[in-house]
Amino acid sequence: VLALALRRRGRDPREAVLWWWHPLPILECAVGAHVEVLAVLLTVIAFYWLDARRGSRALVMLGAAIATKILPLGWIPLFLMKAGGRRGWLLLLVGILSVLPYLESNLSQMTEGLREFSAGWYSGDILFRPVGFLIGIDPENRHDRASQYLRLAFLAAWLAVSWYCRNLEPWRGFLVVSPAFVVLPPTLHPWVLLCFPAPSVMTLSLIHI
User: Fold this and answer.
1) 143-158: buried (b, 16+ CB within 10 Å) or exposed (e) per residue?
2) Quick check: 208 pLDDT over 70?
3) 38 burial type by CB count under 10 A (0-12 exposed, 13-18 middle, 19+ buried)
4) CB–CB of 42/65 below 8 Å?
5) Given a cut of 80, is residue 159 above it in pLDDT?
6) What are the residue ranges of helices labelled H in the chain?
7) Is 71 in contact with 188 (CB distance < 8 Å)?
8) Interatomic CA distance for residues 29 and 41, integer angstroms
9) Considering the entire predicted model, what is its pTM?
């Protein structure tokens, strides 16, 4: 997909090898077998279609990416701005279709992991704990009201970055919003960084290094 996107921009499609030469996709995809690679693939396809001005296809693929992992939610403002807000129903449609196979399942158990993650999961971070300690609260205490408010503040900052980048060129928006996924959440795993290499290759950014 990256090779096709590069060719469409008049660049050498062989530059896509920068993605495969990067050690992170090798470790997290080939060795770790994390599902994030599917979300990244669907997101890259979505951006390919968005850059090609195929708004409906782009929104469908973004919806599929969101159904795989929640992080692509951050690109919704950009896609709605570029593809047209009236097509937003496609995102909802894909979301409904992705849930249909599980309607007979226990919804509470099915969403337990997501609820646990959003309510207070903590596993490494860049800013969350330092900011918490700086203002005198225990950011790792999920039952502390101040810690909960801090989570909401970081979520609001993440949404603000997504909204601010809605007018950027697609691949540039991909690249700029991605750091918010890394810097702001109270949980940071290595596979989250998989969102960096693809837009870095497309924008000739050195972040992928």
Assistant:
1) eeeebeebbeebeeeb
2) no
3) middle
4) yes
5) yes
6) 2-8, 17-21, 23-25, 36-51, 55-68, 76-83, 89-99, 107-110, 112-120, 128-134, 145-164, 170-183, 197-203
7) no
8) 11
9) 0.86
